[in-house]
Amino acid sequence: MHHYGHKISQTARVFSKTLNGIMSPMGLYSSQWGIILCLHYRSALTQVQLSNYLNVEAPTITRTLTRLEEMGWIIRAEGDDKRERYVSLSPQAIERFPEWLQAASELEAVALRDLDEEELAVFNRVLKKMNENLNSV
């Protein structure tokens, strides 16, 4: 037996733990970094959109956003519908983003070291297909 799910889970844990070790001195954790990265590339999103994109339960995303807001990294604003809250990066987070991105990119480079372009293309196709399969359950 190969236990692919276990291997994927273990790799994700090691990556997150290592990323936490690198990012925490800069004021972020891996779960927060995922939100920051998403907001950087997608601008303002609702909490529901963030929750759906990151596949994180609403209470968890709310707690993480509250912490990011307290730290000054995000801004939450009411939308047209009072039940809707839009989230965007604060000016301070925009300023720090390059530093965070560099640290995350350096770790990613270490994780992908010695993988050639063909292997990375296969890796990306496999991850995409696995996500599609899991989202159809």
UniProtKB/TrEMBL annotation:
Residues 1-132 form the HTH marR-type domain. CDD domains: HTH_ARSR (cd00090). Keywords: DNA-binding, Transcription, Transcription regulation. This is MarR family transcriptional regulator. InterPro entries: ArsR-like_HTH, HTH_MarR-typ, WH-like_DNA-bd_sf, WH_DNA-bd_sf. The keyword Transcription applies. Gene3D superfamilies: Winged helix-like DNA-binding domain superfamily/Winged helix DNA-binding domain. One of its GO terms (molecular function) is DNA binding. SMART domains: HTH_MARR (SM00347).
